[in-house]
Every structure is written in structure tokens, then in C-alpha cells.
Amino acid sequence: MSAGVSEEEAPEFQMPPGHHLSLGTRLRAKWEGYDDPVEYYLLQLEIDAYADWLRKMRLWLARPVEPELGELDLDDEIGRWPPERIRLYDKLFDHGIMIPGGHEYALELAKPLALDETLSCLEIGARLGGVARVLADRLGVWVTAYEADGELALLGMERSVQAGAQKKVPVQTFDPAQPDLRKGYFNVVYSFGELFKVPGKEAFLEALAGTLREHGQILLTDYVLTRDLDENEIAAWSKLEDEDLHPWTAQEYKTHLGQLKFDIRIAKDESETHLKHIKLSWMTLLSDIQKSGLDPDIMDYLVPEMEMWMNRVKMLENGSLAFYRFYATIN
């Protein structure tokens, strides 16, 4: 037998000619749990190739075409959340949840609240109300779900009606810039990853504190700044989110919750878990696309959503942002 590596001992993954593993890629592969950094590198190449293909397909779909009679000005009739965009999120995360981690992560986050049928909750940033319906179904709790996007709130209420949960989980439109909340009404207030879009958070948190009953609880997850961002950086981030952004630091949350007499029990950086949830969701979706193709109607919404989420990943990984969980009680 000739000298060298036998066929049985040949490495399972091989680098393409002309490619090299950087130290950063090796460290990231180890961090993500890959025994072979080449496997991790090849996976990233595959994801990049799909992203490039999707961008090219989007350009192709957006090419100028002569509209047929009766098909003019249809875009004026389409809101920000047409069925195709909703279907994309249903594929990306658990049905109706619209947050990384899906049902199980939402239930895990809610554990400190000890929810049961005797408690009433307020959710801020409910999107389609999927988290609220899961908590109501699994734990028996009553949830008033508030969503700033009127279109999403309407669609969320339709889903609550379809699930027979319209009384236990009403999804309603809410303006966080003018929080008009009932005083001393709720046992629990929670919000998962939406408050970085809320202006005037000092007054907003004060309103949340005021709507809680004695011994009330608050649970928040949010993107927080870990360094100062200049105007151009904020503008670029806002453009991808398609919304004005008003992020705080973790210390600002701690300071203002303390001033409102909250006893902060948990203030934890959940960035690592959040990153894993985002990456797993997109890798699974791209794998499904590879196997089964993609509904052409979804294509136009996939690329901007992917760019938005990948920007969040980039900012979390380069240290511009962290994803924090805060749990506190009030006397």
C-alpha cells in the first residue's frame, strides 16, 4: 500500500482550492460546537451562496415588466403584512410566534412568573399574539396583547378568534408613545424584544409600573447598546428595520427600573442563546429551500427579512448590541 492517508482516513470535509481558514473562523467554529472548523466554513459558504442567489432572484423578480390590464396599482392595496410575508415568518419561527426560539423559549422565559389561571397579563409588542396564545393554552393565564402595528394587531385578533381565544387573548392596537394603561390592573407585564423601537421609554416604563398591581412582575427582553452608535450607524440599522429605533443600554434599564422601585431579580445577557436561535431558524429555512424550493410569492419578502436579521446577528457578534433579559418585581 502506498504511503500517505488511506481512503478510510481521508478527512470528511475538505477546503476548496485557494480557500484558507482564518483564526477567527476557527474560534467561531469551536464556539458554535463544530469539531471540524472546515465543516463550519463550508456551511457558511453555502449560506452565503444562497443569500447571493436569493438577491439575484429578487432583482430578477423586480425587473420592469409591462403591466397587464387590471393589474395596475395593486401595490397600493397591499399593506406591510401581506399573506406571503406572514407565511415566511410562520416558516421561519413557530407558527404565529414571530420571535427566535419559538414556543419553548417563550415558555422558558416565562418560568420566573409562575403563571396560572388566577393571573392577568399584559404583553407589549405582541405581533400576531402567538406568544400570548401559547401562554394561555399551556398555563391558563389571561393575556391582553398590545401591538403597535395596527395591521398585525388585526391579523393577530383574527388568529385568536380562529383559535377560540378571543376573550382570553384579545390582540389590540396600542400606541407606546401615548401609553394609556389602566392603573393597578395587571399582575404581570412582559415584552419580548420590541422595546428598542419605543420612544420616550422613561414615561413608558412609568406607565407599565403604574398598571401593575401590588407585588406585580415585569419581564422584558430587548436589544441594548453596548457602545455608542453614531447617527449614520443608527440610520443604517433603522433602514433595515424599516422603523425609527430608540435603543437603551442595559444600565439605563437597570437605573430606570430601580427609580420606579422595582426589585431587579434578573439582568442577564442572553445574546449567545439569541444568536443560536436566529441562526438555527435561518439555517433550517435555507435547508428547506434547498430541498423543496421556495414559493415564488414569498421570494420578495425573504431577502429584506434575511438582511434585517443578519444585520442583528452582525451587531450582536461585533459587540455593538447585546440581547438582555430583565425580570423584576414591584412592592
Helix-strand makeup class: alpha/beta
Shape: globular
* Percent of sequence in beta strands: 15-25%
Extract low-pLDDT stretches: 1-8, 65-77
Distance between the termini: 79 Å
- Main sheet summary: 7 strands, mixed
Question: Would you report the number of β strands?
Answer: 7
CATH topology-level fold name of the domain at 83-274 and 317-330: Rossmann fold
What sequence of helices (H) and strands (E) makes up the elements? Answer: HHHHEHEHEEHEHHEHHE
| CATH superfamily membership of the domain at 83-274 and 317-330 | Vaccinia Virus protein VP39
The amount of helix comes to 40-55%
Total DSSP helices: 11
Q: In CATH terms, what is the architecture of the domain at 83-274 and 317-330? A: 3-Layer(aba) Sandwich
Query: On the 0-100 scale, what is the average pLDDT?
Result: 86
Structure, described:
The chain has 331 residues and is of the alpha/beta class. It has a domain at 83-274 and 317-330: 3-Layer(aba) Sandwich (Rossmann fold). Helices cover 46% and strands 16% of the residues. It is built from eleven helices and seven strands. The protein has helices at residues 23-31, 37-61, 83-92, 102-110, 130-139, 150-162, 201-211, 231-241, 250-259, 271-292, 296-317, and strands spanning 120-124, 142-147, 171-173, 186-192, 212-225, 262-269, 321-330. The protein has a seven-stranded mixed sheet with strand order 3-2-1-4-5-7-6, with helices on both faces. The longest helix has 25 residues, at 37-61.
